[in-house]
Amino acid sequence: MDFIEVSAKNVDDAVIEACQKLVVTRDKLEYEVIEEGSNGFLGIGSKPAVIKARVKATVDGKAVDKVDIGNRGVIGVDITKGEHTVEFKFKTRGLVPGLVISCVSVVALVGYTIFDKKRKQKNIPVTPEVTA
């Protein structure tokens, strides 16, 4: 996975923003400070802090560089022959909201199916007839 560049008021804020963008905790983030940033004088001449960040990859508990496999979204690591524990830490963006929307949709579909079945059993018309 390539580095993303993040800028903020200070380095801590930039790290927090990078964690939010990559959806990882701080301990799973690998970053490099490009520019420390400065407050300037009374806000005049201030410069934002800039960092490059990416998700950490570990092999046998040690951080390693990731290798681009040639397809966006596919990453790998170089390892030696043998048995290893390879770990990539990340969270899929939108997973929780997607699951909530799916569950609500299933509940709504089941509810509608039950309602429709009861309506058909009682022969209740979909639209009430209007008599003049």
3D architecture notes:
With 132 residues, the protein is an alpha+beta fold. It is built from 2 helices and 8 strands. A 3-stranded antiparallel β-sheet has the order 1-3-2. It has a 3-stranded antiparallel β-sheet with strand order 5-4-8, with no helix packed on it. The radius of gyration is 26 Å and the shape is elongated. The mean pLDDT is 79.
Fill in the keyword field for this structure:
132 residues; alpha+beta; three-stranded antiparallel β-sheet; 8 strands; 26% strand; elongated
Mean of the pLDDT scores? 79
Query: Which ranges are low-confidence, i.e. pLDDT below 50, for 5 or more consecutive residues?
Result: none
Which sheet architecture does the biggest sheet show?
Answer: 3 strands, antiparallel
What is the molecular shape? elongated
Short précis:
This protein is α+β, with helices and mostly antiparallel strands and 132 residues long.
Topology of this protein?
Blueprint lengths: L3 E5 L2 H12 L6 E7 L13 E7 L1 E3 L2 E3 L1 E3 L6 E3 L8 E3 L6 H28 L10
Antiparallel strand pairs: 1-3, 2-3, 4-5, 4-8, 6-7
